[in-house]
Structure formats: structure tokens, C-alpha cells
Amino acid sequence: MALQDFLADLAQLASDAQSAFANATDFESLEVTRIEFLGAKGGRLRIVQKGLGNVDSADKPAAGKRLNEVKRNIEDAFRAAKEKISSGTSTSQRVFFDPTLPGTRLQLGGLHPITQTIEHMKEIMGRLGFTAVDGPEIEDDWHNFEALNIPYSHPARDPLDNFYLTAGARSHRTNPHAPVHGKSQCIQPMLLRSQTSTVQIRVMEKTEPPVRIVSLGRVYRPDTADATHYPMFHQIEGLLVDRRVTMADLKSVIRLFCQDYFGDNVRVRFRPSFFPFTEPSVEVDMNWEGGWMEMGGAGMVDPNVLEAVGYPPDEVTGFAFGLGVERICMRQHGITDIRDLYQNDVRFLRQF
Ligand code: FA5
After folding, report:
1. pTM
2. 324 CB within 6 A, ligand 1
3. What does the pLDDT average to over 281-288?
């Protein structure tokens, strides 16, 4: 092999290697380039080096000298590329950081204020010994009215005050769980429950006393939406049935609940009222950083209700209460219009 040809191969190799190592931008491409040029088996340097054996003996010293120079240059180019990548000065690795730019705010989701209120209420009632239970939102006549001592003729059953889903023969104290005799079987109308008191009945039907439950969920009434009313809203229902339960227990539990939720500055008052399923009945009002606000109703479970679920009214007594969740949430956060809770305006919701 002529010296000229060998030197030309070396020159080509040196020039290819210089530009290949200069273009390596990360460790992965650097390794590929290293194997291509400096690889022990099949590397281009090795291949050119083999040509040295064919160079005329007289030219070998000059050819070998040049080969060593090119080898050193290629190894230097490899080391320089490695350093450049390690120090991050390679163009693609360089990260520009301008500390004067405003930061990027992370968009984190959160729980809806009503969900937060519900979770908080469950937690407080749990500490007072009440177990949280759920009930269906589509109810039958028995659980929404009849078993709650709301008779056939009661105005609370008015179709204008309820979301009925099906027509049907309205029951006349026909317990759907009692054995059916002759003609007493009837199809019950179904409706979206208008109160969570339905859960009281469902729990007592299935459980022997004592009972100590709380139920939080959606209820539906065809009320016109205004600042304090919405056709779908939430209630918290509490029920305690045991021997010798009194009105004093009811008042203590509601007071403790309100104080735990709002702190010691809260004031609670009970006004005589009427609900078909409690006797005596009271309206519960609360005063916290503002005027009095109606929260809901309460009372001692009516003996007719205890009888309807098969409890002995001469052995056990109980109290029940049902409070509006939205009203409590609104008072806590200073929200003045219930509709804000259901507009799904993220600018509003982001505040909670
Ligand atoms: C009841 O629903 C009874 N079930 C409460 C009860 C339970 C009494 C157990 C006795 C024993 P009332 O209809 O008053 O009661 O509703 C209770 C609360 O729900 C109200 O005080 C109010 O805070 C809330 N509420 C009623 N209607 C709406 C509405 N359209 N929008 C928002 N909140 C409402």
C-alpha cells in the first residue's frame, strides 16, 4: 500500500471523527460515536490501523507516527465531547433559567365546598358516636311519607311540592314490608326523596335498637331557586333511638355539633314547631357572626313512626334532626347566594 493512500485514509478518519464527536449532544450519541471510531472490534481506527501492515517497510515509521497522532486526536475529541456533555454546555443539554420570570402556578383540583362541609360534618358526628349511612335518592311513598306519619291527605304529598317519577296507587298505611293480605297490595308511586328522614325508616326497618346514625345526601323539592333555596340541596339527618333518650340529649348533641363546627361563639336556639314524624318538634336556629339563621328541624321520634318500623314505643324513645347543609356551608364561608354553589364557576370554586 502506498504511503499516500494510507495517509489519505487517516486524514478522512480524523476529519469524520472530529465532526462526529463535535455533533454528539448526549451520552447516548457519544457512546455510539465512540464505538464507531474507537471500538475495539470493528472500530474505524482499528480498520485503518490494519492498513499499516501493507505500507512499504521504508514508509512505516512515518505512517506509524501519523497514525499515533490521529489516534490521540480522536481520543482527545472523545474526551472533550464527554466533558462538554457532563458540564451541560452542549446546546441541547443547556437549560436556561431566568430567575426574574414569574413562576408557573400549579393548577390543583380541590373538593367542592359542599363536599368539604359534608366530610367535616361526618367527622364531627363520627366523634359523637354516630355512624354514617346512605340511602337511595329515588324513594317510594312508604319511606318518604307513610312510615314517617305523613298521611294520605297531608299537603306535604302535593304533586306541586314533590318530584314524582311514577304515578301509582298511594298507600293507606300499607307497609310494603308486612305480609300481603288480599287486596292491600298496591303499586307505590316513586319520587325523588324530599328529605333525608327517609333514611331513618330504612335503618330502623333493618336494625334492632339501639340506633345511632347520621346520613348526608341530596334531596329534591320543586322550590324556585333564590338566594336561600335551590331545587336540589343537601341535608344532614341524625337519628338516635335507645332506652330513655330525652329531648335534653337532642339539644346537647345539636349544641355540641354546632360548637364543634363553628367554635364556642355559636348560639343555638330551639323554637316549638311541628313535623308529622316527631313529637314534640322544634325548629333549630343558629347565630354565628350575624343574625339568627334557620338550620332545620328536630324532635323526639313520634311513637307512630317507631310502630311503623316495628319498634316497641313503650320501651324505646329516640330523637331525630334534619339540617340544611348548604345553609351551614354558606354561613361558614360568608356565601350570600346558594346559587353560587351550583354555577360551577371555577373562579368562585377556587376560593375553597
Ligand atoms: C325537613 O326536611 C325535616 N325532614 C327535618 C327534620 C328531620 C325534622 C328530623 C324533624 C326530625 P325542613 O323542610 O324544614 O325539614 O328542611 C330542613 C332544612 O333544609 C331547612 O331548615 C333548610 O335549612 C333546608 N332547606 C329546605 N328547603 C331548602 C331549599 N329549597 N334549598 C336549600 N335548603 C333548603
Report:
1. 0.72
2. yes
3. 95
